[in-house]
Amino acid sequence: MFVVSSHHTYEKLTAITSRENVMADECLEDHTYTRLGGKADFYVTPETYKEVQEIVKVSLAEDIPFTLLGNGSNLIIKDGGIRGIVLNLGKLTTISTDGTRLVAQSGARIIDASQKALSCSLTGLEFACGIPGSVGGALFMNAGAYGGEIKDVLESTKVVDREGSLLTLAAEDLDLEYRSSNIPDKGYIVLEATFSMKKGAYVDIKAIMDDLTFKRESKQPLEYPSCGSVFKRPPGYFAGKLIQDSDLQGKQIGGAQVSLKHAGFIINLNGASATEYINLIHFVQDTVKKKFGVNLEREVKIIGEESPG
């Protein structure tokens, strides 16, 4: 069993990257949009692809549990936290263009990638202008909004596999489908993505992005911590309308509440615990199932351990 705050593990990790990039016993609620979650034994923020590879190899050789954490926008971490190494690529944020190609490192925000595309009059990423996740997270779940999704524009990606090898994969190698990919099953760590764009008119691209931003800000409860849209869209239905028609808006368990502004969102209204948040998700699923016979499948990912207390 992995020993929490092992000095040996700390020395191994700091031999790969700087001590400033390795934090022991780090509170994870500071690293998620929901402001939920316990502590990580080690929270590591590498600055190069080589460091990522070496950290994966140490995890494998030392049999240390390993978890990749994006920017925490579509994630709930349980109150007991995460054992072993939590890897965050938030320091890999470079975005560049080459003609009609846009290359973004995985730690960059997909919103920033869409803004870079706009500045270069490249069209194709307008749909992502309001998605709060990282580029890596966007590939992980084939993120989408307003009729667009990552699979529409992704050309290729660089990843590290479970053995620490660096691979370049074509978009079709990722089995991108509605809000899913094979990235979690394969254990890939996305390092960067190359998007194939088209030249467009700056004013037209900006007009689309401004319209989508207005729709998002007017309809979504952005003033509260949340994990975004909690549920996938069930075939033939809208999750938010099913929840609304189940009279669940405003339903609260502890500090977690079904948003009054958008029923598809659950917000951290007042110091919610992860357990309260998760219990409210289950309550919504059970209620909608009983009322309409529809299974609401989670879009948000839940990881970590239960609180020992």
From TrEMBL:
<protein>
    <recommendedName>
        <fullName>UDP-N-acetylenolpyruvoylglucosamine reductase</fullName>
        <ecNumber>1.3.1.98</ecNumber>
    </recommendedName>
</protein>
<dbReference type="GO" id="GO:0009252">
    <property type="term" value="P:peptidoglycan biosynthetic process"/>
</dbReference>
<keyword id="KW-0961">Cell wall biogenesis/degradation</keyword>
<keyword id="KW-0521">NADP</keyword>
<dbReference type="InterPro" id="IPR016166">
    <property type="entry name" value="FAD-bd_PCMH"/>
</dbReference>
<keyword id="KW-0573">Peptidoglycan synthesis</keyword>
<dbReference type="InterPro" id="IPR011601">
    <property type="entry name" value="MurB_C"/>
</dbReference>
<dbReference type="InterPro" id="IPR036635">
    <property type="entry name" value="MurB_C_sf"/>
</dbReference>
<keyword id="KW-0560">Oxidoreductase</keyword>
<keyword id="KW-0285">Flavoprotein</keyword>
<keyword id="KW-0131">Cell cycle</keyword>
<dbReference type="InterPro" id="IPR016167">
    <property type="entry name" value="FAD-bd_PCMH_sub1"/>
</dbReference>
<dbReference type="Pfam" id="PF01565">
    <property type="entry name" value="FAD_binding_4"/>
</dbReference>
<feature type="domain" description="FAD-binding PCMH-type">
    <location>
        <begin position="36"/>
        <end position="200"/>
    </location>
</feature>
<feature type="active site">
    <location>
        <position position="299"/>
    </location>
</feature>
<dbReference type="InterPro" id="IPR036318">
    <property type="entry name" value="FAD-bd_PCMH-like_sf"/>
</dbReference>
<comment type="function">
    <text>Cell wall formation.</text>
</comment>
<keyword id="KW-0133">Cell shape</keyword>
<dbReference type="Pfam" id="PF02873">
    <property type="entry name" value="MurB_C"/>
</dbReference>
<dbReference type="InterPro" id="IPR016169">
    <property type="entry name" value="FAD-bd_PCMH_sub2"/>
</dbReference>
<dbReference type="GO" id="GO:0008762">
    <property type="term" value="F:UDP-N-acetylmuramate dehydrogenase activity"/>
</dbReference>
<feature type="active site" description="Proton donor">
    <location>
        <position position="229"/>
    </location>
</feature>
<dbReference type="GO" id="GO:0071949">
    <property type="term" value="F:FAD binding"/>
</dbReference>
<feature type="active site">
    <location>
        <position position="179"/>
    </location>
</feature>
<comment type="pathway">
    <text>Cell wall biogenesis; peptidoglycan biosynthesis.</text>
</comment>
<dbReference type="GO" id="GO:0051301">
    <property type="term" value="P:cell division"/>
</dbReference>
<dbReference type="GO" id="GO:0071555">
    <property type="term" value="P:cell wall organization"/>
</dbReference>
<comment type="similarity">
    <text>Belongs to the MurB family.</text>
</comment>
<keyword id="KW-0274">FAD</keyword>
<dbReference type="InterPro" id="IPR006094">
    <property type="entry name" value="Oxid_FAD_bind_N"/>
</dbReference>
<dbReference type="InterPro" id="IPR003170">
    <property type="entry name" value="MurB"/>
</dbReference>
<keyword id="KW-0963">Cytoplasm</keyword>
<keyword id="KW-0132">Cell division</keyword>
<dbReference type="GO" id="GO:0008360">
    <property type="term" value="P:regulation of cell shape"/>
</dbReference>
<dbReference type="GO" id="GO:0005829">
    <property type="term" value="C:cytosol"/>
</dbReference>
